[in-house]
Structure formats: structure tokens, C-alpha cells
Amino acid sequence: MAQNIYDDPAFFNGYCQLRRSIDGLAGAAEWPAIRAMLADIKGLDIVDLGCGFGWFCRWAREQGAASVLGLDLSDNMLARAKAETTDGGICYATADLDHLQLPAAAFDLAYSSLAFHYIEDFGRLLATIHRALRPGGRLIFSIEHPIFMAPARPDWSEDAEGRQIWPLDSYQMEGPRITNWLAEGVVKQHRTMATTFNLLIENGFTIARTEEWTPTDEDLRVHPDWASDRDRPMFLLISTFK
Amino acid sequence: MAQNIYDDPAFFNGYCQLRRSIDGLAGAAEWPAIRAMLADIKGLDIVDLGCGFGWFCRWAREQGAASVLGLDLSDNMLARAKAETTDGGICYATADLDHLQLPAAAFDLAYSSLAFHYIEDFGRLLATIHRALRPGGRLIFSIEHPIFMAPARPDWSEDAEGRQIWPLDSYQMEGPRITNWLAEGVVKQHRTMATTFNLLIENGFTIARTEEWTPTDEDLRVHPDWASDRDRPMFLLISTFK
Lengths: 242, 242
Hints:
The structure is a homodimer.
Chain A: H1 9-17, H2 19-22, H3 31-38, E1 45-49, H4 55-62, E2 67-72, H5 75-83, E3 90-94, E4 107-113, H6 122-132, E5 133-144, H7 146-149, E6 157-158, E7 164-168, E8 175-179, E9 186-190, H8 193-202, E10 206-212, H9 217-222, E11 235-241
Parallel strand pairs in A: 1-2, 1-4, 2-3, 4-5
Antiparallel strand pairs in A: 5-11, 6-7, 8-9, 10-11
């Protein structure tokens, strides 16, 4: 079972302070890029893997999605998602993505935001998603970028001349990374870019597009502190189809 | 026109001392990985883009390739390739990949080893290759990995605790990188992983597999000095089909 860090009180309280928890999709820097990948979702049956507070589920219905199944491991998050949702076209349920079961050929789109990097057996999950998609169905997701996740010390550092650099190491050493983000001992699973792409392909997905999220010039005018995100990618977005 | 650095005497002399110039394919660390991607090439018409001394062209014919066209910008390299080849099934020709013209539907496999990172307009080249491939034809190539190429100072550095790290920066700043490898002022073209994949897809290629070359355990027993290549990938290998 994946670590249920979102139900850790310290982590959850910290997470609630993030812009993306207060402003929803508009508070997520990478949202415009993933929004562009989604394109038209009208009439689709959608599953949201790691739905959190349900921001995406509600947005998808506003865009005309036929139905949305929001799955999450965290009771804290699902409770707030349910409290903030009145739409009968959205169903929330508890699910551990490491042991996910889904009905066959039930969805046109599987969506996931920043959840898959907590999953240990990504191949198993992809096989489950593939089976659950209808022919031509899409899987569109974001994860923390492997460059962001790999280092033993994942924080900005300085070179001998005092210039800011990202201290990459351990890139090829896949497996758990334990960080102290919002709480102590948050466990993520590092996989290389190649492993992520190859697992998708081996499980029957065709790669349609990928983005290593970077701030636009407009982003930098509004958030000059995001400039360092041009030095190393923080998010990896991947669009695929069955 | 791409910089013709291989005809710079200092660079060429340095390049001739590399293991891959003395031992051929067996002297290239990434060869076993790209060999596995190639699989069976018997009976294929092949174009080798940046053929250098012709090692791959001769190997491909030994494997039963029907014909191999070896293209390179460097007269030095082509002169040695011709001098070392007696096989009439191999044809060598001078070509600048930045202005490449190829016949339509003439090849089953386009191969390239560590040449595309010198190319300025990768999209144009890919459109040319796609047109030159027969239906189902493959493009398999290696480039320097964007993580390897991006930094302002692309060399090992140390963090505050004296541990070796790869000082990543400028990852999202695509464009020329000037290094002093074998000679001064070698110009390479940095593109992100995402740009490389998206240009392939936009030009009609399907991604079949990718590898971020890393030494195997056996490699490390023979070459313990390769251990640092586990901290950051040096080569990116991509297998695609039309």
C-alpha cells in the first residue's frame, strides 16, 4: 500500500496552505500546459486517479464530461471533495493506486495530477488503466520530473563561482526517495524518463506529447521567483492514447 | 551549414585517439544498448546519418543489410571510411545533415550515432528522414543526453559536503552550447527531452523505446571509472518507426 501521507495531520495542514489547495487548478503552475493537452473532453467518461479535493472532477463536468470518477487514498481529501461537490455526475471513492481495480473499457480518459510518483509498481497500474480505457481512450498525467526527484539533496546549491545549480546525482538509481516536504519522511518513487516512457509503451500506450513544464515569459512577469524553474524541470506531463 | 569540427585537425587527431575510433563499435559504451534496439536488420536498405569511419555501415552489411548509404560532412572521416571498406554494398557520400536531401521511400532504417546534437533544425531533418523511409521503416539514433549538454559548466562539481554532483542549470534554455571537447569552440545544439520527443511525434514517428544509457554491473566491473555515469545520463537512445 502506498504511504498515506495526505492523512498525516502535519502534511495535510501544510498541503492546505499551498496555492493549488486554495485556488484550485488556477493555482497550479503547470495547469495551462496540462489543460492544453486535454483539449476537448465533452461527453467523456473520466477517471481521476488521485483526485484530491476534486478540483479537476468539477472542472471536467463544467466542460461537459459525461461522468467523472474521482479516486483518492486520503480520507481527508475525499471528505473535503465531497463537501464541495453537489454534482451527481461526479462519484468519489477511496482507492489505493498500488492495488487499483477498475472495470474494463469503462473510461475515455484517465487523468492524474502529481500522484503517480508515489506509486511503487507503475507497470501494474498502467496495465490496469489500459484495460479500463476504451479503444482510443487517453491517459494524460503529470508527475514530479525525474530530474527534480533523483538527487540525494533535492534543493538548489551553488557552484564554485556562486552560481545557482541543481545538484543532480543518483539519476539512474531508481526507487524510493524520502524527503521532508510539508512533513518528515514523505516517500516518493524515482523512475528515470526512459523507464516511464518504456513502461507506457510496453503497456500498450502511444506517446502523443510530453512537456517538461517551464514558466512562460508571462509567468515570469507575474512570478519572477519562478525563474529558477528554467534551470531544471520540476514537472513532467505526458499525453498518451490506447 | 553545421560546423565541420571533424575536419579541424586538432579535433580530428583527438577523435582518432578515442576508444570508439580505435576499436569501432566495440569501443562505444552505448553500443550494446543500441545494438539491442536494432534487432534484425537482414535485407534492409539503410542510411547512416553521420557515418564517421564507417564502422556501423560495415557491421550492418555483415548482419545481412541489403545496402548501406553512409553520409558524413567530414572529408577526413569519409576518406578513412572509404579506405577501410571494400564492400560494394556500401556507398559513402558527403552530406550536411542541416541541408539533407534524400530520395522518397528509399530506406527501411535510418540510423545515426551521436550526430543529431550538432543539427540546428532538427524538425527539418526529421521531415526529410520520414519522407525517405518506407512504411513501417525505423529511425534509431543516439544523441548526447540533454542533461549532459544543458549546463553552462558541463563537468562534475562538488556540493558543500564534497560529494560529486552534476551541476545542472539552463535546462530549458535551448540552443547552442559551446564546449572545448578535443578542440576549442565545438558547437552543439541543446534541446530538451520534451522537444526531441515532440519533434519526432509531430513529424510522424511513433516512439518504440528509449534508453538513457547507463553502465551495467558488468560494465562497472571492467570500467570502474564509469560509475559516475549512474549519477547523470550521458547518452540518449531513441527507437521509432514510421
